[in-house]
Amino acid sequence: MAIYHFSAKVISRANGASAVAAAAYRAASRLEDERLGRAHDFTNKAGVVHSEILTPDGSPERWQDRATLWNEVEAGEKRKDAQLAREVEFAIPREMNQADGAKLAREFVQREFVDKGMVADFNVHWDVGDDGTPKPHAHVMLTMREAKTDGFGPKVRDWNDTELLNHWREAWSDHVNARLAELGIDARIDHRSFKDQGLDLEPQNKIGPAGARRDDRGETAERAEEHRQIARRNGERIIADPKLALSAITHQQSTFTDHDLARFVHRHTDDKAQFDRALAAVRAAPETIRLGRDGQGRERFTSLEMLAVERRLEDSAEALAAGGGHGLGAGARAHGLAASEARGIRLSEQQRDAFGAVTDERGLVAVIGYAGSGKSAMLGAAKDAWEAQGYRVRGAALSGMAAENLEGGSNIPSRTLASLEHAWSRGRDTLTNKDVLVVDEAGLVGSRQMERVLSQARDAGAKVVLVGDAEQLQAIEAGAAFRALTERHGAAEITAIRRQREDWQRTATRELATGRTGEALARYAGAGMVHAHDTQDAARAALVERWAAHRAAEPERSQVMLAYTRDDVAELNSLARASMREAGGLGEDQTIATARGSREMAAGDRLMFLRNERDLGVKNGTLGTLESASASALSVRLDGGRCVRVDLKSYNDLDHGYAATIHKSQGTTVDRAHVLASGHMDRHAAYVALSRHRERVDLHYSREAFAEPKGLARALSRERAKDTTLDYRETFAERRGLAAGDRTAVGLGQGRFGGFKPGRGEGLGQTPSAQTSLEPAVRQYAKAFLDAERMRAAGLPVLEHQQAALERAGRAVEAQRPGLREPLDRAMQRNPELGAGRPNKLLEAAERNAAEPRAGLERERTRGRGSDGPHGPSGSQRDRDWDRGR
Asked: How confident is the model at residue 795 (pLDDT cuts 50, 70, 90)?
């Protein structure tokens, strides 16, 4: 976990500050201060690796000179307490080198400050601590007046808005995390406060350079001392309760490395002695669980709480899957299929197979369906069948938009999981044994929430149907619950694409679903649907222009504009409104106080509801068109045709709805989609964004974000699949001296894991025994083998990254047990289901396969034909040859 720091302050004469002096220090330069009549010389300062003035287009050329710029700022302010400049300071990930770090910061400064009209004096400091640890950070001095062609204009009050600072903080986090992922660096930052993350830790301020120098000299530095006290208090909290560190790390990931832990503890302790104590406390805590190695050979760990959550998840899933009593009779099934055909929908063979699976007697059934494969049509038929036998059918999804799409596509009354859980907590809408709960887009649901839902269903005797695609967007919170459950309990699959109307586009969607993003992009580029632009601003403008042209030409066609970040969505919404205004499509603006700040809204505007509200009948993600507006109320016609009156005193969670995030769009179907590519995207986001359409999708990208098409394909092909503690269950059981199938012996509250007590200098990442690592290695190999086999079965070439993963996993297996790879292959070729099950079962089958040729050799030796000579090599020699895979 990389360090997050982002702060802003005003440089003011009221504090005795000089803009010229501040600029000289930050740039390590010598500047003449015309107002004070003296020079400020900081040329002896070390550590400044990049210094640059960035100005908006059309600004005076003279401002490229630092002294001229800041003396002009000083001369323009007459008050004794004048605010001269704003300084923004933020930490750069030390995992980056200087060139990458400076480029990362410069891009952010250009986009967030300079493009908005500010002049930025941008400096990167690459300081090094006494312990040799780099402390890279950026200082950005910003002008407070609008930059004009002939000089400075009036001060811009909006730049003082607290919401803008909050936006900058989140935007920097998004920008950094996207670049870290692009560079393949396993670190992330989080802009949220500890309180928002649910952690009992104090936020720590940053020690400024002056404070650090005074501290080094042994002088009192108030800010440095305050930082030290907070860090010490946080360190003591972690020592007293190591679960604080574990909770923070496992909020968004089920497992972690020793490196993740050490970084977190280092950030929240005062000195080496406390760091050692805190790290030792977390390492030795009963709640710290060592799991085993991942597919890259790294040791993974988790918390006792996370392990218990995912163990309960597995227990509830097994109980539901083993439970019967939910099967439908032939009459009910026939009724469902007939009702579907009466609506003009005839299910394909794959859809009928899935229909048969979800209507069987099991209490838990999963359906994996490619984007646009007709899952909703199948579920609509199943709903009619369930209701024909007296079941109540309910739907749920993580997002409101996905819930609405489930309801619209299958006629299953649906709501968000959050609202469903809230109702359960109040004793309302509880499940019974006559309920069927359909959870759509289940791949987005984290382990904690999935466990709560399945446990409720298990206790009530209800049936749960999970529908999703593990290759689409990953769960935001910790875990990959849907993927783990389908691996253990199987799933019906619907892979025939039905959403896109052109055959070549359906092929592109299959390519996206199977990780061949580059091939899909090439198809769309060949059809003229991938558009390159010089800058990200130009990409946004062209995207909205194309959206507006399609809207004007064919207003009856449904469209959506998609982007990964909320910032890009806000920009697209703003541009779309301007286009609508120019075309005469909007009425008179009315300023509306929304939960996200003031917004201009007018009749004709597209709006999105951002909070579930039962009385209004809207969900987070519901879309509509504004019909009339006043300062106190809005009249909105929802896309379903219903009109609602919104009293802004009781509901103001609204925003413009021309564009949406890719996360909100999962499950949506439109005629045309317009997608803005950014460095935040990976192959999961690309799969979702490029498969929402029936007729056409246009992808816009900038050379500013992607220097060349290969860079775009590379970024949109990145794999970011999550893991769960269930992936390491067999290894965990072995290390506790238990059988993997023992459902009662693994007591999660039985103290330290395997007596694990590292000594001085001993990290969590110690090398396990060969036996400890064998089953995770087998699991990884089985996954890679089946991925390749699926491609071959479809008549497709095995992709380069799939072949590389297969070879890497094969080497890991051979390193643990030479000669095991071939019997594993033969076992899975005979019975592919073994590869999707538990590694111990696959190992047993492989060992039986390995025994077969040896038994034959023994029979040959018994008949006297085993010696070396004219009849061939000895049995022992043939054994060795077979082990080498001859």
From this structure: low
- Specify whether the CB–CB gap between 689 and 665 falls below 8 A: yes
Classify 288 in phi/psi space as left (phi over 0), alpha (psi -120 to 50) or beta: beta
Helix residue ranges, H only, 596-728: 662-665, 683-689, 709-715
The DSSP letter of residue 569 is: H
Residue 33 has pLDDT above 50, yes or no: yes
**DSSP output for 138-175:** EEEEEESEEEETTEEEEE-GGGG-HHHHHHHHHHHHHH
Q: What is the pLDDT of residues 492-548, one digit of tens each?
A: 777 667 778 888 898 888 888 777 888 889 999 999 999 999 999 999 999 999 999
Question: Apex CA 295: angle with CA 197 and CA 291, to 5°?
Answer: 60
Average pLDDT, the chain: 80
Judge whether residue 864 has pLDDT over 50.
no
Q: Residue 630, class by beta-carbon neighbours within 10 Å (0-12 exposed, 13-18 middle, 19+ buried)? A: exposed
CATH architecture of 324-444+451-494: 3-Layer(aba) Sandwich (3.40)
Q: Give the model confidence (pLDDT) of 388-427 as tens digits.
A: 999 999 999 887 778 888 888 889 999 888 888 888 988 8
Contact 725, 310 (CB under 8 A): yes
The DSSP call for residue 256 is B
CA distance 259 to 237: 20
**What is the residue whose two structure tokens read 């503890």?**
265
pLDDT in tens, 107-151: 999 989 998 899 999 999 998 876 677 889 999 999 999 898 889
Q: Which of 200, 270, 273 is nearest to 229 (CA)?
A: 270
CATH number of 209-306: 1.10.10
Phi (first) and psi of residue 214, to 5 degrees: -65, -40
Is the domain 5-191 a CATH 3.90.1010.10 member? no
Amino acid at 428: R
From CA 271, how far away is CA 816, in angstroms rounded?
Answer: 41
Is-contact 765 301, C-beta < 8 A? Answer: no
Phi, psi dihedrals of residue 218, rounded to the nearest 5°? 85, 10
Q: Which has more pLDDT, 153 or 665?
A: 153
The total of other beta-carbon atoms located within 10 Å of residue 728's CB is: 26
9 - beta bridge partners?
87
| Contact call for residues 869 and 861 (beta carbons, < 8 A) | no
The answer to whether 773 touches 296, Cβ cutoff 8 Å, is no
DSSP β-bridge partners for residue 83: 12
Ordered by start, the domain boundaries in the chain are: 5-191, 209-306, 324-444+451-494, 517-717, 774-843
Q: Is the pTM of this model over 0.85?
A: no
Q: Which two tokens stand for residue 451?
A: 């466990």
Residue 618 exposed, middle or buried by CB count within 10 Å (0-12, 13-18, 19+) = buried
Out of 3.40.50, 2.60.40, 3.40.1360, 3.90.320, which CATH number does the structure's domain 517-717 have?
3.40.50
Task: Please give the backbone phi and psi of residue 602, each rounded to the nearest 5 degrees, phi first.
Answer: -145, 160
Residue in this structure with the two tokens 């359909």, named with its chain if needed? 438
How many percent of the chain have pLDDT more than 70? 81
The single-letter code of the amino acid at 63 is: W
Contact 730, 782 (CB under 8 A): no
Q: Round to whole Å and give the CA distance between 773 and 738.
A: 15
Q: Are 333 and 384 in contact (CB under 8 A)?
A: no
Tokens 């990389």, located at residue = 2
**DSSP-assigned letter for residue 477:** S
Task: Please enumerate in sequence order all residues whose Cβ is within 8 A of that of 587, keeping only pairs 6 or more positions apart, or say none.
Answer: 602, 603, 604
pLDDT for 801 beyond 80: no
Q: What are the tokens at 224? A: 């440095």
H or E segment at 30? Answer: strand 30-33
Tokens of 834: 């073994």
Angstrom distances, CA of residue 125 to CA of 92, 173, 360: 9, 19, 64
